[in-house]
Amino acid sequence: MPSHRVSRASEDVMRELSDIIRTLKDPRITGMLSIVKVDLSADYSYCTVYVSSLEGEEAARKAVLGLKSAAGFIRREIGSRLRLRRTPEFTFIADAGIEHSAEIHRLLRDIIPGDDTEDVHDD
Fold first, then answer.
1. Which DSSP state fits 88?
2. Residue 15 lies in a domain
3. How far apart are CA 45 and CA 33, in angstroms?
4. CA angle, 13 as apex, 76 and 105 as ends, to 5°?
5. Burial of residue 121, with CB atoms counted within 10 A of its CB: 0-12 exposed, 13-18 middle, 19 or more buried
6. pLDDT tens across 52-92, in order?
7. What pTM was estimated for this model as a whole?
């Protein structure tokens, strides 16, 4: 179970990663990319980042390749922006979280009737 310090550091890493990803110029990192989850080890040596894309899982996989090639730059930026005991080594994993959520939303929208019916009140 992660301590409060590690969970706060994970949130800080997530916030800074979001900012750093927006500045990357790799053509594989395109579209609406979202960091779903950050798992920071207790000793701050390793960080697993789950990345999802609105454009689908294939776009997330391409973005992961770009993020892996920029891992050294990302690590240096995190080290300069945050005061951590250690600067973690990053592992990026493609996640279909956003795509899965959009599919569930579409299914619910198809099942639940809209407000197309008109209410008739007998007085």
1. P
2. yes
3. 25
4. 130
5. exposed
6. 888 888 888 999 999 999 999 999 999 999 988 899 999 99
7. 0.77
Residue 120 pLDDT greater than 80, yes or no: no
Q: Which residues pair with 123 in a beta bridge?
A: none
* Alpha carbon distances (Å) from 29 to 52, 53, 68: 11, 10, 11
Amino acid found at 13: V
Does any domain span residue 118? no
Q: How many domains does the chain have?
A: 1
Instruction: Give the pLDDT of residue 2.
Output: 54
> CATH number, domain at 63?
3.30.300.20
Query: Which of 40-44, 45-49, 53-57 is predicted least confidently?
Result: 53-57
Domain boundaries, position 89: 4-111
53 assigned to some structural domain: yes
Compute CA 8 distance to the chain's CA centroid, rounded to the nearest angstrom.
16
